[in-house]
Predict the 3D structure of the following.
Amino acid sequence: MTTVATQPFSGQKPGTSGLRKKVTVFQQPHYLENFVQSIFDALGGIAGQTLVVGGDGRYHNREAVQTIIKMAAANGAAKVLVGAGGILSTPAASCVIRKYGTFGGIVLSASHNPGGPDGDFGIKYNIANGGPAPEKITEAIYAKSQTITSYHIAEAADYDIDTLGSGEIGSCRIEVIDPVADYAELQQQLFDFDAIRAWFAAGHTLCFDGMHAVSGPYAHRILEGLLGAPAGTVINGTPLPDFGQGHPDPNPAYATELVARMSGPDAPDFGAASDGDADRNMVVGRGMAGEPLLISPSDSLAILAANATLVPAYRAGLKGVARSMPTSTAVDAVARALGIPAFETPTGWKFFGNLLDAGMATLCGEESYGTGSDHVREKDGLWAVLFWLNLLATTGKSVAQIVQEHWSRFGRHYYSRHDFEGIATEKADALMTALRGKLATLAGQGSHGLVIAEADDFAYTDPVDGSVSRQQGVRIVFQGGSRIVFRLSGTGTEGATLRVYLERFVADPAGHGEPTQTALAPLIMAAHELAGIGQHTGLTEPTVVT
Ligand code: G1P
Ligand code: ZN
């Protein structure tokens, strides 16, 4: 065990979901070590504790796992549970932390950001409840990273992380575990696997796109193994360090192979994709005239909530639901009908943890293709797919039927997010500052046939611990309930990304058949005008529309 002198790196500040930087930044000597030691120090040390370690298999994953194991040993950890091959999806890491009651875990992932030598790498700390560390802890980690002078590491040969079983580094036990087994066991406790098996046996079909990322091994074992889906149901199911040079973000812009397969008369009954670390999901049905039916994540959350009692785990009903502020209010309409509370939190899964722990919410979701429940403390991509499969199998309905019936009952919340990427940080900040500056004067003003009812900068007081998070995004709400939300991304590694979220509610089923972008056209024009997007950024069109 040795202690190495070091100096702080600036900018080791965790964002929406951990610390994300270019691989080349993480490859600098001491960079990862400094951050890992800062985590341990911020937690008051890890002597005698058990930690979980794993990642999404992206470039630099294996090297980082070795460093963390050796540092955990030198910092006096009693035990480290490592996913074989250094693999653990984000929801599987959460599951393992909870199941074995560990002190916490380190997950290596930059989620949906591209990987490879020129791509992104990331690291996040999850606490004992299995969820992302709350802001209080991420701020303490950052503070430690700015004053660090040394770190502890074992001078040991690389540990064999590919063979299941246990061994030691010094007095620290290292256990290499099957990354899928605990997660697969948990899912079987939640869903009606017999009904889903019968659905596949009856000839129904699914295409699951692993996008060359970490969901592949989980999907192979659960869908094709335990549920008997035919071989070939899972595509792009082998994790690659560079995700096949792709962008492992399951949305219509990047999951193009899935969208193509869901088009045409021979499309499978159901399609789904998951991201780099397997916590996101996109679900697709067969639409009209060979068109894929892309289900917006906000709608998916609402539909799962409305039908939850068809699933064994949620048969007794939901305690409440929670959504991030920019997520559409479709789930709020369901909550009203069910007579349960609906919570609105800032963007980022860490804000759901307290609500789930306190038993105030059962299902949570974000518009960014994230859905989950109290079974773990992370969003869970394959869980959402299994939930949908359970609904399809139990109701015998098609995806399109379930969606149409939902809209008829609750109304349709047209929804889209427009991203403006690669903006110079000063320009993006200037846009937000200007927008914030005029919030107080906006109520009552008109724009493109819409009248502004209220405008504010979202602040959240956690109902469990009372902590306050300010400046979480500008909300413009129009008479009739349409909304525009503006915020800057907290996960990028280059420049700034402006996210513009658009929502319009239409109650009458006669108005449910419009293309989304057409239905939102007046809001899109209002958004450009209100924020002066063109003037501030030079961009007249978004770079990504989801
Ligand atoms: C994005 C999403 C957010 C999600 C996060 C991590 O963060 O918008 O909902 O929780 O990724 O997956 P952002 O880049 O907007 O800060
Ligand atoms: Zn992710």
